[in-house]
Every structure is written in C-alpha cells, then in structure tokens.
Amino acid sequence: MSTKSTYSFGDIDLNTEQLAVVTSSLNGSLLLNGDAGTGKSTAGAYRLRYLVEKGVPGDSILILVPQRSLATPYFAQIQALDFPSSSMPSILTFGGLAQRMISLFWPIIARDAGFSYPAKPCRFLTLETAQYYLAKIVDPLLQQGYFESLTIDPNRLYSQVIDNLNKSAVVGFPPSEISTRLTQAWAGKPSQAIIYDQAQECALLFRDYCLKNNLLDFSLQLSVFVNTLWPSLVCKKFLQQTYRHLIYDNIEEDIPVAHDVVEEWLPKFDSALLIQDTGGGYHTFLGADPHSSQRFLNLCSNQLTFSISQVKTSELDTFESALSESLLEHKLINQYYFRDSVLPFSVQSFRFYPEVLDWVITEIQELINKKHAEPFDIAVLTPFLSDALRFSFSSRFSEAGIPYSTYRPSRSLIDEPSVQTILTLAKLANPGWGLKPTQQQVRSAFLGSIASCDLIRADLLARMLYRPSDDPAKPLKSFDNVNHEMQSRITFSIGEKFESLRIWLLENSIKNSEFFDHWISRLFGEMLSQPGFALHNDFDSANAVSRLIESYRKFRQVMQPTDGLQVLESAREYIHVLEQGILAAQSLTTWNEQSKSNAVFLSPAFSFLMTNRPVKYQFWIDIGSQGWWSRLDQPLTQPFVLNRNWPDGKIWTDFDEVYNNQLTLTRVTAGLIRRCRSHIYMCTLNYNEQGLEERGALLMAVQNILRQANLVKEATHV
Question: How far is 140 from 138, CA to CA, in rounded Å?
C-alpha cells in the first residue's frame, strides 16, 4: 500500500523516508534495506540529483549496478530535461568498471597479467566472440572423443565451459580448481569426474589462448582487475581520487569479488549509499551472492529500512506471506485472512495449452476494454518461454490487436524470423560468398520481406525465380520472365515489390570497403521498413534487426587482420557462426525499449524480475509446471557448488537440490508479488506442451492457500 507523500522533490512527491535518504549527509555511508516496491531505487535516483544540485561534480559520482538493465532509473534521471547541468556521472557494472580500468592502464599491467604481447592493444570479447574463439579450441577435441558420454548441443557445451571460467572469476578461485570443486561435490558415478576434467582442460586452453592473443573475456577481465590492477597503488589511487561519492544499487544481485573491492574502497568515499533488496538474489546461477552482500550491514555507518510497499496491496502482502510459508513448510501453519474474503489472485484450470492462450488473450482484452488498463501494466510470465509458446502468444496478440513485447535473453538471434530474412537476402546479394540458400530459406525470406505475400505466393516466387544454377552471379530472375497467367495469380502488386527488392539486391552487393552492419542498416532503411514491405511499422522485428547490427559490430571490432579475416570474410564468418546458434549478447537498447513501450510484456519470470518495474496485473502460466521449481540441467557446471558459501569437500545431495529449489521458488514468487499492484491471474493445465501431466510445487502451495481460504469463508457464514 502506498505511503502518503508529504514532501515535494523535483517533479515527483517523495515521502519522509525517501527524502531522508535523498538529503542524507554528504559525509558517511548509508545502507538502505527494503522489499522490492518500497521506493528504494527512486530514492537512489533522486539522491543522484541531490548530489549534483549541492554542487558535487557529476564525474566524481560512481553508480554501480549488477546489470545494466537495473540502471534505468539513473539513466532516466540524467536524461531528464530539468537535470542540473554538470559533468556526467559514471553508471557502470563492476565488469564495466574493470574493462574501463584495463583499457586505461593496459600498458602498465599487461606484462604482469601474463599477456604475450603487452605492447599491442587488448581486445575485449563479448559472450558471442568468446564462444567463437572457444569453438576453435573445443571442436578439434570433440573430434578426439572429448565429452563422448554426453548428449549436448555444442553451443550449450561452450556456454557451460565459459560459465565455469566466469564462476571462478566472480567467486575468486583459480580456474585450475574447477574440476576439483565439482568432483568433490559429485555424488553420482565416478565417470563424471572425467567430464569435469575435460571441461577444465577446455577452460584452461581457452585462457591460455586469450593470454597469447591479447583477448579478454569476462572472466579474464575480472581476474586481471581484481588480482593485478586493483592491488596496484596507481589504480587504487586513481579510482579513489576520481570517485568521491558512491551509489551502489541492488547489491544482493552482484558478485562476491565486487563486494570485496567495494568493502575495501568504502571508507575512502566521502558519501556512499548502498541499496539492498531483502529477499533478492534472483541471479545466483549467474554468480549473484546475497549472502556476501550481508557484510555491509556492519560496514556502513548508518542503516535505514523501507518497510511499506508503494506497489502491492495488503491482500497481496498476505498472499506473499501465505505462499512463502506454504512453499517452505508444505502446509499453512498460521491462519491468513483476506479482507472481505477477496483473494488477490485467481486460478483457472484448463485441459490443453491452446485453451490457456485463448483465455489469456480474452482476459487481457477485458482488462484493457472494461477496466481501462494500459498494456504496459500487464505482464504474462512463464517459467520458460519456448519458441513455440512465444510464437503462439505472438500470433494471438497480433490477431487481437494487442500491442506486445517479448524478451528472452537466452534466445539466439538466428531464431528471429527477421534476422533469418536478412541473412538470406545477404546471401542472395552476395553469391560470391558461396553460401547458397535453400529454396525453403528463399521462400521464407520472400514471406518475411513482402507485406502482402502469403506462403503459397512466396513458394511460387521461390520455385520459379530462384535459379542459382542458371547464372550463379544473378540467382534471382526477373518477374517479367513469369507468364501472364502466373503473374496474375501471384498479383502484380507482389511482383512489383519483388522486382524492386531484386534490383536493390543486384545493385547493392557488399563491397570490400563496406561493413556488413552498414549494409544491413541500408537494406532495412531503404527497403524492408518501407510501406509495402513486411517490416514496415513492425517494431519487434526492428528491435531484432537492431540487435543484429549491434552484434555484428561487436564481432568485427574484435576481429583483426591477425585473425586472417578481411571485411567480406568476417561477414561470411559471422553468418556461419550465427547459424550455429551462438547466443546474442544482451543489448541495453533492448531493455530500454521494453521498459518504454506501451505493450503487454511477455517473458520468463526471471527476466521480468530483472526489469525491476511493477505492473498492475500478472498472468502466471502453467503453475503446475516443474519449470517453476527445478533448475536447468547443466552437466558441466554447478552454480551452487562453484560458490563461496559451499563448504569444500561437501557432497551435493538430493536434499540440497530440493532445499535450494524451494528457496529459489520462494524468492522468485515473492519478487513477482512485490511487483504487482492489483491482481495475479494463474492457470493450471492437465497436459503441458509435451502432453504430460504435472503437479509442481507452486501448484500444491497455491492449493493449500485456496483450501484455507475456503474454510475461512465457510466459517464466517456459519
């Protein structure tokens, strides 16, 4: 329930507690605790404004966040028209700070850090480019029989090897201990130790390759900064003199080595505001350590707790308590009462998935049309968002005329239809690459580029006009070559659009002097986004194209002549890598667009939590699914074992698995409820997407609450 605002600050009203944080002393440290939705980040953003208004130079302020998406309130504050003119504050993740310092001090520390060519510049790797170089190392080993006992997609294998390296860096142990830690905790067959040894060998070979070629992936960036750069007096003095004021938000979501550095640095700041979500730590599988962040309780000179939510109602607060107890205890020990017996959630049961999808669309239409809800105030959340489920929802949203946006960080770029269209068109425009698309790919490209073209007409165009064997230099033939009867069947309107696209591709092959990302921008701007073409006013596809452009730009910036790749070769190599399914690095632009658009937000629950924004209505899909409960199977790594809190030599048992699944589900559901203003709609399924029956822990916990609520309701009517 919202607290009454009693003070005005800038363009919004701040309550007394928030104003106390904003106007706290310019000397000393303050730790701000509280649940999500109590206004902590708002207070942190206005603390930034207050510091600048008090004459603090902007470039002396450091704002640290665990992930770039969590910096949105601070970017919004700086971009506000009435923000005081000043030098710019630094808004960074710990990894971003490490990268900035390595770039600055590279000539000084390169040799000590073990790089082979300290006189040459370093190159920072994204997740994509790290997997690209790792594949060069791992693929020959796979041919020799490595990981032969595993059935795993190569890209998942690459990502788990890199994840092991990242865990060693964020926790602070050498990568040579990866296998030992995993093996000591393994309770299954001893043969698994061979897999761990092979995974460690791949990690060490990749680390050696990076050192020999001046490459820094995320793990090496952290290791160099924490072990070589931060201990040096020159770097430490530079940072301490540059940044005099700190705002450190969502400290529970950050990594242990970041906490180590901030702990040592904290006394040197003139002022420091540290903000912590109680019950946070949603990304422990990525290295977040809420236990590590508890050290700041004893390190900050002052503490303050926000206890009253500005988002959820008292009924939702009761529901949160009841659900947490039901999940942890498997029953309700206490009696929970909802005002006037009104439940802040509802549960609908269905037999098959299509019925769920239709119900969700109908309910959202009711909310928008009858309750005047904005699409922005609605989130549809799933444990996992498969491509099939995403497509099914997207189709229904489009048919109903409901604006929507989807986000799944693990979704590969190659899974985006607009990206597949552009890659196929690139192959058609550049037959010299030798990447001849199939007839099915060409058909899909026509379908995805010409607005009024359906599947039948796209197939006719592909079969009649895609003839690479006739003239390899001109694989597309003119629409004029089609007989009049077939032209009429395809329609002259579609033929006109096809012909303009064909001529553009013929006249705009990529030259040696042009970068592939520039060519994509021209293709999208000059053709695909124009009226009559499929991507006109398609903002979701435009977002995917923007990610593609950013992805290739980062790829070519890492590629150097030393890699033997020229401009055209790097474009061809990039397409090859992308079609293997390498993940796209997270884009800050994507996060910003999701947060600004007035659209229903469709995403996995974890991704929604990291947007850190409340909505009025939430839909929890298939609460009986084990996906809400169990973690992903990762045979080469284990996030809870590669952690500072796991005792050396302790075996990971089924009890540990169940207990941690319980805690994670409790934390996630509490986080979702704290970001809901009005009502949560839940649905259950007799049969999931695979046609199987499931009765997961979340469903059982909700049923416990419903049983007690019905008993209380009956008792009040006796």
Answer: 6
